[in-house]
């Protein structure tokens, strides 16, 4: 007989390749396929040996070392560790202690069983089906708000049954596995629940796919862990839709004896699940997305009205499910979210996503996109991770960003290259470089190459800015401080390009028509804009304490003033260029330039208003600091200078420097010396209603109000925020309201100071908290003066 | 291998059996061989933890990295499987899951096994 383990391939090296666990089947196989007689004869004895050895290779030898291990560890000194050199104490802290009920999710109390004896095949009442469906929805939304699946959906016994053991085809995903007697088969109600659960799981898969497909996401907002379960990733969506349809058919069947109210509420839940699954679909074509969210709202209304029909089923959700999940964390309680809150979250999700779908319809203009992103990030309550990923997916969708001309370049053009600027003349791109590389290129070709290079160069910083704008407020602020550093480098690179542009323009004799340092001015403008946003976000997110308001608003005013001055120069260039075009009787181009002017004017006025309002508030808070109306916490371990450095740290490296030296800053923030002991000039000034201390604030407020009113009048179109007109209008209005509120507050304090008697001012200042609708505009903190 | 020979040889003598107290140096050396090696630690509640040993101490607390938890199926499930298949030796899978970095406290350890993962013919570097 042929040796059982001989095979054609193994003849050369039988020792390593023979891996059969037992002999009989292999030998029959060898017989069937015809064995290699040569090999058989050549290796009789050695192969028997190899068989024994190969078996031992596949059965790892296990040695009981308990006794010696115990003796050895007893011999160790107290406190002595035998450990891996690379294993640190820090790491060991993360270890889960086995048999500790608080940490070990697999720990069982005496008499406790691993699983609840909940039978998923027990027939349920229709009320109970509704109860379970609604509870599942609560957990789904809790998961959306950031809790892990192990504390939410995966605590459902039904979901667990469907997912584990893993199945290859959907038909096998039942509340049981294998075959069961017919009388135990789930009835129509359980089938409906199954269809609901399946669609829910697939929805989760879509959500995870959408969120993780983004370039940037963080687990701190959303937990994508699926604990080694596969959420039907491979199975296409239409299968789930069919399951839902079939379940709805069954429910509609009049043979099913069930109260009509219950019937229709189960159907409406299935219908909502279907709409939701469709809306979450990651492959939904762009032209359909705007229709996918509105049905959710009607579905929510139906659920709201019928929730009280439901009945909870004790035991259908259990923390014990966590013991079955791959888990490296201690057991945690189930997250409870009220049904009303869950519906509210779903409503926000649907509204935010619906809003995001409008992005697709925006005019193709990077400035419009920017306004849209900014207003989306400012939505209140803040959009959930899913909604943000949803917008980000649309933002970077190839079908949306299809553009003949680079988007950053469109942005540059809108600011510094008015229509028909020679730099962007299309004919520039028709020149070919001289054959001899030593010859200088024609200036027009120089323009074209520079612009192409620059468009490439600013792609990344531009993308970074957009990605940052897609984050929540806190991260947006943090990320902007990093993005802005990239723009600082871009600015210095741009100034090199500007030199070449200047020489080319001089060679062409069109220097008059080209704005001085166009590219670096553009980058600088964007940088200052971001800096303003970072500071305003600091106020909005309560990063600054009330006693820092004065300094930070002063800094903001400085930045806004710089931006305004830059914009003034650009505006002047526009006007000069316009008049030269009119003189040359080039009316079509003149018209184009004139059409572009409102955008510049809107920017100028915005910067003016920001500079004036922040100056007014800075001065106002300085006065309050001197009057001791703002709480100053005791800070025994830091100095003012160090705190200033820390605050300004992200901006210290900028070229040109934006942060004034500390001495300079301190002088402006403390015009009358230390707040605790102001010099006598302060008392004289503060008591005089005509003194500069008061008039400066009032004048600044007046000009801020004027500027914002004019911004409003120019409208959203001029500000390139047509796509978010409503939000934009409210934002401008809020700034106007802040000006008015600041006026009232200043008048209140002034009045109190002028009338003050022996017992003090008789007023106090309340700082409105952020995020509670107490501020007119979140970034503009106006203290409220209250009589005591 | 050489030292194990020596041990074997020593086991001829009756006094070698009684030598239960280990010296600290010897114990440290012997234990440190298992660092990074796969151990199976049986806990007092019947679960088995398999993973790489990272650390141990005088109280026999053992830290395992990349550990999996294995739990014998409940009696109920075994009975059901046997009833359904009619075969008294029907196989029922153990439940296992990944638990990552764990520390098994010494007082809960009932048995420690070393999983030798050398290829056939390869000499083991570990003195048992």
From TrEMBL, chain A:
Localisation: Cytoplasm
Organism in which the protein naturally occurs: Ophiobolus disseminans
Domain spans labelled NAA35-like TPR repeats: 371-718
UniProt keyword list: Cytoplasm
Protein name as annotated: Amino-acid N-acetyltransferas-like protein subunit Mak10
First-listed, main subcellular location of the protein, grouped into a coarse class: cytoplasm
Keyword Mitochondrion: no
Gene Ontology, cellular component aspect: NatC complex
Pfam family, one: TPR_NAA35
Domain NAA35-like N-terminal span(s) in chain numbering: 79-238
Stored InterPro entries: NAA35-like_N, Naa35_N, TPR_NAA35
The family this protein is said to belong to: Belongs to the MAK10 family.
From TrEMBL, chain B:
Coiled coil start-end: none
Family annotation (SUPFAM superfamilies): Sm-like ribonucleoproteins (SSF50182)
Highest taxon of the lineage: Eukaryota
GO cellular component: NatC complex
Residue span, Sm domain: 31-112
PANTHER family: N-ALPHA-ACETYLTRANSFERASE 38, NATC AUXILIARY SUBUNIT (PTHR10701:SF5), SMALL NUCLEAR RIBONUCLEOPROTEIN-ASSOCIATED PROTEIN B AND N (PTHR10701)
Name used for this protein in its record: Sm domain-containing protein
Species this protein is from: Ophiobolus disseminans
Lineage: Eukaryota, Fungi, Dikarya, Ascomycota, Pezizomycotina
